[in-house]
Design a protein that fits this description.
This protein has 903 residues and is an alpha+beta fold. Among the domains are: 111-212, Beta-Lactamase (2-Layer Sandwich); 364-472, Beta-Lactamase, CATH 3.30.450.20; 474-638, Alpha-Beta Plaits (2-Layer Sandwich); 649-890, Alpha-Beta Barrel (TIM Barrel), CATH 3.20.20.450. Helix content is 48%, strand content 21%. The protein is built from 30 helices and 32 strands. The strands form six sheets. The protein has an eight-stranded mixed beta barrel, surrounded by five helices. Strands 1, 2, 3, 4, 5 and 6 form a six-stranded antiparallel β-sheet that branches. It has a five-stranded antiparallel β-sheet with strand order 8-7-11-10-9. β22, α17 and β23 form a beta-alpha-beta unit. α14 runs antiparallel to α15 (525-542), α15 runs antiparallel to α16 (568-584) and α22 (749-760) runs parallel beside α24. The chain is rod-shaped, with a radius of gyration of 77 Å. The chain binds ligand C2E and calcium ion (2 copies). One calcium ion (CA) is lined by residues 683, 738, 770, 800.
Amino acid sequence: MPGFEPLPKDGDVASSAHVSDRGHPLMRAVDAARRVGASVWRSVPLQLAVFFLPLVWISYFAITASEKTEALQQARSHGDSVAKLFQENTERIFERVDQSLSIVRTLYAQDPAGFNLRSWGDRAHLASGDVVQFSLIGLDGYMLATTSGYSGPPLYLGDREHFIETLRQAHDRLYVAKPVFGRASNKWTIQLARKLLDKSQAPMGVIVGSISVDMVGNFYETAKLGAGGTLILRNTNYVVLAARGVDQNGFVGQVADERSQSRLSNPAGQYWSEGRTDRSNRLITVRRSSLFPLIFTVGIAEQEIYAHYESRRDIYLGGALILTLVIVVATTLHWRRQLALDRAQFELRDSLGKFEDALRNLPQGLSMFDGHDRLIAFNRQWLDMYGISPDDIRLGMTFHEVFAHQRAVSDLDGYLSDLKRRLIASEQTSNTLTFPNGRIVQISYGRRQDGGWVATHQDITERKASEDRIEKLAHYDSLTGLANRNLFKERIDEALARHRRMKTPFAVLLCDLDKFKSVNDALGHQCGDALLRQVAGRIKAEIREVDTAARMGGDEFALIVMPGRGSLRDGTSILADRLVKALAAPYDIDGHPIVIGCSIGVALVPEHGARIDEILRNADLALYKSKNAGRNCFNVYSPHLTVEADQRSLLEIELREAIWREEIEVFYQPVVELATGRTVSVEALARWRHPARGFVPPAEFIPIAEEAGLIVELGNLVLAKACRDAMKMPDDVKIAVNLSAVQFTKSNLIDVVKFALAESGLPERRLELEITESVFLADSAENLKTLRSLKALGVSIALDDFGVGYSSLSYLTDFPFDKVKVDKAFMDRIDRPETRAVLGSIVQLVRTLNLAIVAEGVETQQQVDEIGALGIPLGQGYFFRKPVPLADIVSPSSAAPKWQAVA
Ligand code: C2E
Ligand code: CA
Ligand code: CA
């Protein structure tokens, strides 16, 4: 394309509307006609043709017309002069003959008898070619004498026209009679006659001279009238006397018709005659003799007149035709080229128009530069996008001039050379520019053949913003602003890739909040959310830019930690420790002072895994370990955790089997009244006698049963057995059964309890259910409802392991427990005054609430004394008795069953 010159130089593309209705067929035809017309008027050769063609033909007709006129003119003057010569010639002959007639007549009149015509004739050499013979005719009509040598009987000629008409004439004038075909001479002759006059001038006969018709015609050869030329001699009676150039025999003696007579009556003149026999027109020149009764006509054939002219006219015509042909052919060829050119130009303009339309209506900005970095096309949208005024821009400006005042790119040279380098490497490339005002423009460059480029510019600020929003939704946790699970996994992938490339190690931390559930339940979701946000804030404060913090859902957080200066393990341990402490510090949520903790599991890469699932599983095992280790701590993964985990899963399988085979046994441990030593109740404790491992402690298999959902069946088993066994115990001894929190959520506990009681026949008052505060942590509202229903059955409810976890005293007021079991941890530290202080206040509260209180894990006399002193009336522990099978507890043995003593 030869540039885009049609674009207005001022760059105001928007104003250069170039729109036409090119669709309608009629419009198209009109358009085409207009185009043809326009092409004629714009084509110089066509203009020349239009000028020269008529000129050629006008010249042709003018020249031929003038030549024709000239030919006629020449013919007329030729006819004139021939006629004059014809007349002079003939008159001379007639004059000579007439002179002879006059001489003979005079001689005869002087001596009619003695005049010998014959000898006079010989002497006078009358027969010099003109005259055939002289004859004298008497008044009687008989021939008197003749020069012809006639010697027959008297010849009567009185009936002859020349005799009659000559005598009839009043005057003495030469009479020219109609030609006669001589019987003797075998020739046409013209008779010239005069009266014979005597001395008194009276007529005495007629003298006749005959001249040959041919004599008149002898002149014809010299007249050069050409083909069809005629010489005709007539007398004044319009009788043809002689004729040349026509059939003499058919013509001589004929009288001209009326029309010719009137034409011939003029003394001199010219007219056109239609040829009678040969059908050719002739130009007739007429002359009338003033001396003799003769009329001369000269005919020149029209063909002859125009022969020369016509041959020349044909040459002219040929020339004109050739010239016309040349002009027409040349012009046609040129015109066709012009048409093709016009069409091409039209199409070019049309496509340029379309291009402009497209430019104008493009939602994007467009700019086009040539191989010399010069602007060759653009649209208004482009100007607007870069805030360029139309007055400051014109086609042909260089890239540098155009973008001199923009502020998105600081190094124009670098930008341009980079762009060119990329366009050489590939046909298309793109860039994104961010302007200081925050607008973002995406530019797509396409290579042009001349080394330039076309660029479309799109303002993607909005799009980018919504993309960012979507990206945020897809990758970030909306509550805390931390990365979400997806992004976290992507980041691990990235870190793994980096590790593969550069051997950069990193650590993954999984972090579970302890007690978050209870905050949520106690203070509501809004406070829970606020707490999570604060936790996120604290986590962010502890890590560096290079690390990633994510919320995986609920109260689970996760971190990717990049190595610092020291070893990764040390750095991560320090960070984990800091985190545990930071998250354990009290929070202020809406004025509520809140304390929670966290458990952290750490996996190091590559030490603890090279795949994302492996890494997360190991971190999770470490986290499990932390949770099991009493929470508020961190653990780094080590292979034995996997071993333990494997063992757990093996145990799970075996436990499932044992439950199914009802191999779970129940041991009983009494709760003793310190003052009397009486057994007030027994606690049922599950026992699993493993075929290979012997007894597996409940502390090991109960959590497994809980995790695997086996606890429901196991619990039902223990409950049913305990109720049945209790029927074999004294009626005043209660049976205490442990309930897991899982049993609240995963079974219809009320029905199960009712069924166990009904099946065993145990009165409700003898059954005590032990729960821990974990029942309040999960789904507390629902669990509380169940708990109330249980209590409504008439069974009593004890709060087990009181004082360990996060035991808030609030549980005691939330639900009307019957008994509180103080955890063994208090016994272990009973020698400490602060422990005794805490126990003292618990005892006080329990008394206020009117609850029973039991000290668990009592092993020594000293502990018995201490709890007694603190006012705790009941105790349970090895000091009194270890858990034993039913048989041991109901039948008398060495370790005397104390209720029998009482009983
Ligand atoms: P727990 O409910 O606190 O049970 C008391 C635990 O303390 C029993 O351990 C018992 O043998 C032990 N114990 C009693 N006196 C002493 C003592 O003087 N010194 C020491 N060192 N320990 C003493 P056991 O039987 O191993 O049970 C552990 C835990 O397993 C129980 O703690 C209970 O939470 C759970 N558990 C046991 N049986 C069941 C069951 O049938 N259902 C449910 N849900 N949990 C059970
Ligand atoms: Ca218990
Ligand atoms: Ca306990």
